[in-house]
Amino acid sequence: MKSTPCGVWRLPRAPTDNVECDNVDDGYDDDDDDDDDASARDVDDRVYDELWTNAVAHCYEYHDHTFHEHFDGESPTIFFPLRDVNEYLVKRVTKNRADFFDDYFVFDTRVEYVRETTDGASGSDGTWDGGRRGGFLVTLHHLPSGRKYDRVFDRCVWAAGENRVGSIPKSLRDVFIDGGAVFGGGWKCEHVGGGGIEGEKHIEKEMGRTEDDSIVFVFHSAETHSIRTHCPNRNVLIIGGESSAEDMALQCLKWNASHVDVATRQDDWCLINSTTQWPGDRVRVHLEVEVCSVEYGNVALRHVMTKWPCGYVPSSNDEGNGQYDNDGRAVILKDIRTVILCTGYDANLNMLDPRLRPECEMIPKYNMGDHHPSIFVSDINWSKWKMKNGDNAAHEYTGDVDGGRKRMIRKNYNHPDMHRGILFKNPNMMYLCEHGSDIPLLSLDVHAWLLCSYLTRRVPMPTVDELRTANIQQYMDQMHLPTIRYDCDEAYHEILYSKVEYWGELEESSSSEDDNLDSDDNHDEDEEEEEEEEEDSPADLDEIEYEKYQLRLLCRVMEEGGYPGLCIGNYESLNEYGNRLIKYSFLSDETRHCLKADHPEDSEWRTFRDADEQAKSVASLYTGTKARPLNKRWMDINDGRRTTIRNGGV
């Protein structure tokens, strides 16, 4: 159930089974309002006009449609406009079959509801794995005609995308509404903005505002088509700490924002803080804060303690959610006119009967607590479990930590309610997910192949008991990695969190001007310190092992599903190609970390995407074609439909 190309794959017709498959719209909105659904699609489409990838593109090149082939022999850059990525995915499945989408997709059709039925079709032997009979009754809505009808299917694969519906926390929304902010774009709210400057003047008049009473316009990061007109010559606040916040900060600078503040509840280790230099020094990052009040153009931030996935909150006696360190610290951001919420996305499961949904949702929330006991692993006798300490750097700092109750957050192909995308309570119901991978497009493709292998019976589907056993065993295996146990075990987290020597020195990325002291006399001493900082900290070494583990898990899925065209090793070890993927994965981090140290003279314009030196070390896994630097500075590239790799605009 998905109507836009993502994680697509090519699958020859199965030799013994004819599998009927319809791919339809996923019921984006909660309502039956057709205009809302169309608006949602417009938002999705326009995102491709502006944004770029933030990881090395060569990690998701496919064996059956290489970059060399797609770009007609032209060497690509290591970062792409999203438009190029979208075109690449579509071309992959249409190059040998131009009518692919016409033959296998049903467009302009929304899935209204999916529920189990005992009256439907069944497998050729009357059953499906697990002994279940029947299938799924699917109610469809053809939008142009308004006709609704039912169809019955044996199996159902949810592939609507984990990042499908923009998410805005209610508490955050309420703060801005109480402060008189206007939600622009397509979000339903007390006021609806948009329409550029003239639209703002109209709203000011309706609300009784004067020119001195600045209106704050609020957008979700998906609404790039609306955000662009609200950036020039304005102070912008971005809320969030991951890749979307980084993307929007750079785009706002390109759209001539006067200054950008970024506020995040996360601490030093969030992605937004890894960038050591922003163009023109026009971005300021505020860590461990949240918006507490809004009054016209003044936005107040208060300090908040980070709550980790395992439930641990440092220096807090408050057991509730949203713990605060009431030390009096506060930041007032003045004359903020535009706010961009990079607060993530939710998977849309509204079209599924609750019995077909994971009990812990697609991504189990960190604050579920005992209300969702399935996120706690109770099938393991943790009193007898011992962490392997020979292969990790953390043990020197933690010693042996007794095993207590641990959470199973959805990470590295683990989910409390499913394994390999198969729902335990109904194995006919499958989910195509990213599985927490740092290379999501490759992971989606590999898992899509596995599910297709199950559906066409190329590969025997495991029983539910086998899936549960494999899920628990995988969880036990990955708990030997400090990076994962740190997220899942509160007792372990508390001990390791306090070991400053383990984490090493953080690179200063958002320090104030007061910290940048002129010290010519200490120049040699500073150089020595920089050299020392280049050495990997113990935490860095464990992070490398964690990244390798992610790929080793993907190797296992490749083997299980018979994934063709690419071998990156096996579960025991990675081969040359797997190690190159690891290198490329870390390369995007390197482009951020080295900005200030390597290019202080280019501080007015250079971004992590201006990675000339790093591009020289990247080549296709399949053809050996070398990557190339951008043709011009990223800040000078004219985004939009005309800017692609093909026409030399990149």
Automatic annotation (TrEMBL):
Protein keywords: FAD, Flavoprotein, Oxidoreductase
Nucleotide-binding in keyword set: no
Record-level Gene Ontology MF annotations: oxidoreductase activity
Compositional bias of kind Acidic residues: 19-37
Positions of the UniProt region annotated as Disordered: 17-40, 508-542
Name of the molecule in the record: Uncharacterized protein
Provenance organism: Cyclostephanos tholiformis
